[in-house]
Specification:
CATH class: Alpha Beta
Structural class: alpha/beta
CATH topology: TIM Barrel
Number of domains: 1
CATH superfamily: Luciferase-like domain
Strand content: 5-15%
Number of strands: 11
Strand order of the largest sheet: 1-2-3-4-7-8-9-11
Number of helices: 16
Amino acid sequence: MVRPLSRMTRPLRFNAFAMHALTHQSPGLWRHARDRSREFARLPLWLDLARLWERGLFDGVFLADVLGPYDVFGGDARAAIRSGAQVPAHDPMLLVPAMASVTTHLGFGVTASLSYEPPFLMARRFSTLDHLTDGRIGWNIVTSYLDSAARAMGLAAQRPHDDRYALAEDYMQAVTGLWERSWQPGAVLADRSGAYADPDRVRVIRHHGPSVTMEALHLCAPSPQRTPVLYQAGSSPAGLAFAARHAECVFVSGPSAAVLAPRVARLRAALAAAGRDPSAVQVFALATIVLGGSDAEAADKLADYRRHVDPEGALALLSGWTGVDFAGAPLDGKVRFVENDSGRAALENFTRADPGRDWSVREVADHVGIGGAGPVFCGSAATVADALRDFRDATDIDGFNLAYAVLPESFTDIVDLLVPELQARGLYKTAYAPGTLREKLFGDGPYRKPGGRSGAA
């Protein structure tokens, strides 16, 4: 699928990709002398980051989350605990009001699993955050992929892969009903001499589906966006179908343009098949950027970063993402695809998604050690700007979810070195658009249209 040239000349969008944890995508880098990740449990770090991201005109911060430890590697969580590989992991939602208080435009995409929380509570929490951020909240809809999370919730194991998406479909009908239909337009009067709200315009939402039963009046008055901006990251057939019905932004990850381009094409085709504009969804690809004053300086910096990678932590993450235990696997053995109920795209990234590349376990661990499954763009600002533009054009994405190696150095370099270079080329905005997060991203109103992107009230 070829998009119009005007789409290709649209400025790139950046999200910071982070986690309320010691380690996110680069295991072991918390040990680097210039890294502040050990401060993750304290607000000053996050307030500094929020100000930095807004100074760099990032559209938002995309906050990842997990509800269980990575315990596939070696059959337990010891490697993850020892390396700090996404454990400890604190609640990301509690960071949002604090970061919103020191910013005006920065958006907040928060990962929250629908598998273990009733729609009523989810709707209330996101409406509250939308109010507190003046309409800058988004929800990364996930169904969870770790058996350890399911056991923590009292279940024997996670649901089968496609069953999770069936639950998600039922769940979305309930939660969007609360956001979009419980309080009708004009329900809030706020009349000091009379009523606060018109009870005839506030209704109970009754949902009786195959997985979700609910009768509830939404306890929150309509927030600036009503429905948070909806993010999603599935790339399986079930995930694509879900995205085609619900998503406004989609997060994709893979080690190369060769892996990602077919996935984005399938997403655009699924949107068209669902009767939506194929350009209606903005697609963000995982990437990590290492910058220097010259290509050689950046290469030296990347080599320094790699000396701090924890290989066991990398394999613990990889095992958790794929559901395959790589403990004891020959490092020069080839990685092969197996069908399971974990994140299928994570294993496809290094197996059948790119028939031209045959990855060994050692090569995958080395790749995952800096930035996870995404590519690493390394060089001067001019070199990286060229690479990002070429990657965008080859894959049909709209922007990047930018992981980090050293915190906050990776982001400081992007803001101080790369952003000005992109702006000089007309590849990056020079100011924020007004309005809510949805209006900043799409420009056509604060409210989501059912089956579409957004729109006016």
